[in-house]
Amino acid sequence: MDRGITDGVIQAVMIALFAAAAMMWDAFQMRIPNWLNVTGAAAGLIYHLFESKLEGLVYAASGMAGLLAAALLLYVMGAIGAGDVKWFAALGAMAGLIFSIHVLLTSILVAGLLGLILAVSGKRRLKQQFPFMYAVFPAVWMTYFILYGQGGA
Fold first, then answer.
1. How many other β-carbons are positioned within 10 Å of the β-carbon of residue 58?
2. Sign of CA dihedral 145, 8, 14, 89
3. Nearest C-alpha neighbor of 57 from the set 12, 7, 94, 103
4. Which of 28, 58, 69, 86 has the most other CB atoms within 10 Å of its CB?
C-alpha cells in the first residue's frame, strides 16, 4: 500500500496541528504532555481505521510501533526525552512509518545543526539542552516538501 501524508487534507492538518501544539508546549514547558500524545495516537489510529478499515488500522499501528522502537533507541542513548518518544509514536500512527522515519532522521540532522550554531555563537554551552521540538517542527515541514512537494515522490 503506497500511502503518504498527501492522502488527505484532514491528515495533513492533523499532523500540522499536532506538531505545532507539541512545539509550543515543549518551548514553554520543556515537556510534551501525555494527553497530547495519547490524543495524537488515537486520532491517527481512528483516522486510518475510518479511511481504510482494517488495512488502515494496521498501517497506523505499524507506524506507531516502528517509531516507538526507533525513538526508544534515542531515548536510551539520552538524546531525547520520554515525551519526544511518545510524540514520535503518535506521529507514526498519524503519518505512517516511512514519513515518520524521515521526520525522525531529519530532526536529528536539524538538531545537530542547531546545536552547532548555538555552540559556535556562544549562546549555549555544549552540555546545555534545548527542546527537541525546535528541530522536529521544521523537520516535519522539510520532510513534507522533500517527499511530496514540487518534484517529490
1. 14
2. negative
3. 94
4. 86
Per-residue pLDDT tens over the stretch 30-87: 899 999 999 999 999 999 999 999 999 999 999 999 999 999 999 999 989 999 999 9
- 7, 52 Cβ separation under 8 angstroms: no
What is the rounded distance in angstroms from the CA atom of residue 116 to the CA atom of residue 99?
Answer: 26
**What is the DSSP track for 111-127?**
HHHHHHHHHHHTSS-TT
Nearest-angstrom CA–CA distance, 49 and 46: 5
Burial (Cβ within 10 Å: 0-12, 13-18, ≥19) of residue 108: middle
| Structure letter (DSSP) for residue 7 | G
Give the cell for residue 130: 534545548
* Grid coordinates of 7: 492522502
